[in-house]
Write a structure and sequence with these properties.
The chain is an alpha/beta fold. The protein is built from eight helices and ten strands.
Length: 302
């Protein structure tokens, strides 16, 4: 399937403010999550900036005076400096859903707006400590790939793709998420962080590639939902259009049985996603279009 042009949704509101203190507060939580979940020893070779002490030695001309250890210097009578094991630069991959269903929203903003905000948060945190950020957008034909970049170029490239919008209706590919995850597995070299941001609607067979990624990387699944997806209002006859496939369905929402059946099917779908992510030991964050998505993301990452 060739790539479809992305279109900014007409009702786009944007993710809202991203206060720096709140984003900064997520840095420690995300760092702990990565440290706990990444397999193996992630220490880099050599010495440099970091938190783990590598050696304590006498001061030499040219050493950074900020690294002088006051206690050791006072004890020995000779200036000493502390050298640390450097932290390995982390590569963050953002797997972003740009399918047509992300242009839906009936509350404060669209699902695409919430996904944009989450992607920006992971992007900002990903470039810290000399890290880099790569992105794979799926759901609009062939995956759109941005190779990992650090510092400002990484954020600029991320913002540029986010501004392009979502796929037009009727471009559904049920294997899009699975293909994007397989692409990350091929491109990602050293162990890093993978943030999957999607509504997980009508996507199939993503469990195996996600499980494979979890064996090597720290993985966070961010599920974006809208309250209207959970239940139908009693407003009489409705014509529903599936944005992914373009299929049309006539329903009588005045019938209580129809509304209850719809609610039960959605509850089961959401429950299956949650159970599968729990089985794979993937951190699962659910962000809604009707709430404070940034605060919710912080609570899920702790």
């Amino acid at each position: 399937m060739t790539s479809a042009p992305l279109v900014p949704p007409a009702a786009r509101q944007g993710p809202g403010p991203l206060p720096a203190p709140l984003v900064d507060a997520l840095d420690l939580a995300l760092s702990h999550l990565v440290t706990r979940s990444l397999p193996g020893d992630r220490r880099a070779a050599g010495v440099g900036l970091g938190t783990e002490l590598a050696q304590l030695r006498p001061y030499e001309l040219g050493d950074d005076v900020r690294h002088i250890d006051a206690a050791a210097s006072a004890r020995t009578g000779t200036p000493h400096v502390r050298l640390h094991v450097p932290e390995r630069a982390l590569t963050t991959w953002i797997v972003l859903d740009t399918s047509a269903s992300m242009a839906f929203g009936t509350a404060r903003r669209l699902k695409a707006d919430v996904a944009e905000g989450a992607a920006l948060v992971f992007g900002r945190l990903g470039i810290r400590r000399a890290g880099s950020v790569g992105l794979i957008g799926f759901g609009a034909g062939d995956p759109r790939v941005l190779p990992p970049r650090g510092a400002r170029p990484g954020i600029v490239a991320l913002r540029r793709l986010l501004a392009e919008g979502t796929s037009p209706d009727g471009r559904h590919d049920p294997a899009a998420l699975a293909d994007a995850l397989a692409r990350v597995a091929k491109l990602a070299g050293a162990p890093g962080l993978v943030a999957v941001i999607s509504d997980f609607r009508d996507q199939r067979e993503w469990e195996r590639p996600l499980g494979s990624l979890r064996l090597r990387h720290s993985v966070v699944a961010v599920e974006v939902v809208d309250p209207r997806e959970a239940e139908l209002p009693a407003v009489g006859h409705l014509t529903l259009v599936d944005p992914e496939t373009g299929a049309r369905l006539e329903v009588n929402t005045s019938r209580r049985g129809v509304r209850e059946r719809f609610k039960e099917l959605e509850r089961r779908r959401r429950e299956q996603i949650s159970d599968e992510l729990r089985r794979l030991r993937v951190r699962h964050a659910v962000l809604s279009t009707d709430g404070d998505w940034l605060a919710e993301l912080g609570r899920h990452l702790r």
